[in-house]
Amino acid sequence: MANVKVFNMSGSEVGTIELNDDIFAVEVNTHVMHQAVVQYLANQRQGTQSALTRAEVRGGGRKPWRQKGTGRARQGSIRSPQWTGGGVVFAPKPRDYSFKLNKKVKRLALKSALSSKVNENKLIVVDKITVNAKTKEMAKVMDSLKAGKALIVLEDGNDNAVLAARNIPTVKTASVGTINVYDILKYDSLVVTQDAVKKIEEVYA
Directed axis angle between helix 194-204 and helix 103-119, to 10°? Predict the structure, then answer.
């Protein structure tokens, strides 16, 4: 099992923790991570875009001018796509963009993302994060850990840390049950509390 340093909120090393190789040391599979990211982004789409086809635009029932003899190109309707105010050829309509991934694929993608952070030395384990609901306190912790743009995975019930981090534009918080491949890969560092590490190993082992 891989050993990773554990830091306190001041950025000082206070010990080490053994990580489960089945979660944090799997062979990184970029293909399934890509699938998971595409699925996440597709599921975020509202799918409410809508435009009118030529059949739905009001007017245009009468032929604008006769077929022959005017010297102009023949036209059947002023609501044809080439006319200003006409319909859209392949108009977008409301639809559901979401799709499903197999549970095993999603789990492998998450393990690959976590393992990639360990491989890049971008996983920062903190013994605990106990702050008041103040932005400057969380910002100070992030500076001490030199986390930069970071995703913080917290144990359930740490509401103060969530409130303290929500106004920091380069930081996002998540619980063990809401972490996803997209966020793990998007942020430079992954900051995880010791309790959250144990929970991740329980849930995804």
Answer: 140
Q: Are residues 40 and 52 in the same domain?
A: no
Residue-wise pLDDT tens digits, 7-28: 998 888 888 899 988 999 899 9
Task: Read off the pTM.
Answer: 0.82
Residue percentage of the chain with pLDDT more than 70: 100
- List CB contacts of 90: < 8 A, sequence separation 6 or more: none
Q: Residue 54 in contact with residue 87, Cβ under 8 Å? A: yes
Query: Which residues span the domain enclosing 166?
Result: 2-45+98-204
CA distance 114 to 105: 14
Neighbours of 18 (CB within 10 A): 12
Residue 32: both structure tokens together: 């399934």
Nearest CA to 182 out of 36, 28, 25, 27 is that of 36
Burial tier of 165 (Cβ tally within 10 Å: 0-12, 13-18, 19+) = buried
- Statement: residue 171 has pLDDT above 90: yes
Residues 11 and 102 in one domain: yes
Rounded Cα distance between 140 and 174, Å, is 19
- Strand 13-19 to 2-7 pairing: antiparallel
How many residues are present in the chain?
205
Q: Give the number of domains in the chain.
A: 2
**Separation of alpha carbons 96 and 27, rounded Å:** 33
pLDDT of residue 156: 84
